[in-house]
Amino acid sequence: QRRPVGRVMAQVAMVMNLDKCIGCHTCSVTCKQAWTNRTGVEYVWFNNVETRPGQGYPRRYEDQETWQGGWRRTRGGRLRLRSGGRLRKLATIFANPRLPSLQDYYEPWTYDYENLMTAPLGDDMPVAEPRSLITGRPTSITWSANWDDDLGGGPDLTASDPVVQRLGDRIKLDFERTFMFYLPRICEHCLNPSCVASCPSGAMYKRAEDGIVLVDQDRCRGWRMCVTGCPYKKVYFNHKTGKAEKCTLCYPRVEVGMPTVCSETCVGRLRYLGVVLYDVDRVGAAAAVPDPRDLYESQLDVLLDPADPEVRRAAARDGIPPHWIEAAVRSPVHQLISRFRVALPLHPEYRTMPMVWYIPPLSPVVDALGETGHDGEDVGNLFGAIDTLRIPVEYLAELFTAGDPEPVTAALRRLAAMRSHMRAVNLGEPP
Ligand code: SF4
Ligand code: SF4
C-alpha cells in the first residue's frame, strides 16, 4: 500500500562523479575568487578537494574527538573574536571547545620575496622564507590541504586517515595495494542541518524555496556553535568580522538560472546540479533510524519521484512552481540518485541528510590486471572480482553508506555494465 505524500519541498542538490575528478582545484580557486578572497577568510575554502586516503580539510574532521580546543590554542595568537568582549570569548571557549584550530585548516602563507631581491651580497644563497599571511611572521608550515599528496602515498600516509583507522584490520594496506582518489567537498545543504539547529542566534537558516543553507550576517553573533555543530566542518569563522560564513551554493547565480561557479568551471565536467523533491514530513523519522546502515535507504525514501502524478499534485498544492517540478523531472541529479542508484551520500551516519551525492570511483581490478590485461571496466571481471578492486569497497562503504558494502557494490556494477556497453557500442562490437 502506498504511503500518502506529505508536505513537498524542493531542494537544489548536486551529484559529483568521482571517477572524473583529477584534483586540479579549478573549482576551489574559482570559488575562492568569487566568495572568499577577503581578509579574515584567507584560510577558508568553501570548496575543497581532498586527497583520499588522507586527513581531509580541516584535518581529521571525520574524527573530531581528537581536537583539544579552539582558536585560542593557535600559535599565531592573533585570531580574536571581534564581536563581543572578554566574557563572550571565554564563554565560547568553555561552552564550545571542540573547534578545529587554524593549524587544522592550514595557515596560509606567502614567501618573503623581498629577502631574495634585497639581501646583501654574501657567501650564502638568500632564501624566500615562508611568511604567514595572517600574522605576517615567518611560519614553519606543518600542514596544508592536500599535504597527503606530497607525502607520496603508501601505508604510512593512509594510516593517518580516520576512515582507514576505523576499518582497522578489515583493510589491507601495502605498497602493492596503494590507492588514491580525490573527493571534492562543499557544504551539503542538508535536509536536517545541524548547523541550523546549533545556532543560538537564529542566524543560520535553510531557505524554504530551494533548501540552500545560509548565514544571516546581521544576526550572527560569532558563537561558532555552527562550526562545531556541522559534522562536515563546512561553516567557517571570519576572524576579521567575527561572523560565520559558508558555501552559499552560489544562490545569486542559481536564482537567475546559472550553475554554481564550481559546477561551471569544473574541468572534468563532473558536477551535476539539479532539483529534487522531498517529503519534509519524512525527514525526522528517516534521520533517526536506529541502524546507521539503514540511513542510505531511509534518505532515498525521503526523496520523491517528480514524475509520479500524486507527487506532482502534492507539489503544486504546496506551492512548488511548475517550472521547478519540470526541472526535477528532467534533473540528472534525481536520475542518478533515485532512478539509477549510482550516487551515494557522504557519511549518512552523521544523520544530517546531506544533499551532495557522489558516484563512487570505479577503479581497476588489481588481480586481473597482471593475468588477463583486463581492468575494472570489464563487466565480467567486475562481477567475479569485486573484492579485488584497487580502491577497497570497504573504504568506499565507510565513506558513503555507513559501512554497508552492498549499495556500493551495486553502484559499481551498474557503472561497469554501462562502461562495458558503451565501449562495445563505440567499437561496433556486440554488446
Ligand atoms: Fe550545515 Fe554542515 Fe549540513 Fe552545510 S554540511 S548544511 S554547514 S550541517
Ligand atoms: Fe575535480 Fe572538477 Fe574540481 Fe578539477 S575542477 S578538482 S576536476 S571537481
Automatic annotation (TrEMBL):
The keyword Phosphoprotein does not apply. Its cofactor is [3Fe-4S] cluster; [4Fe-4S] cluster. Residues 12-41, 178-209, 211-240 form the 4Fe-4S ferredoxin-type domain. One of its GO terms (cellular component) is membrane. GO terms for molecular function: 4 iron, 4 sulfur cluster binding; electron transfer activity; metal ion binding; nitrate reductase activity. The keyword Kinase does not apply. It is found in: Cell envelope. Keywords: 4Fe-4S, Electron transport, Iron, Iron-sulfur, Metal-binding, Repeat, Transport. GO terms for biological process: anaerobic respiration; nitrate metabolic process. This is Respiratory nitrate reductase beta subunit.
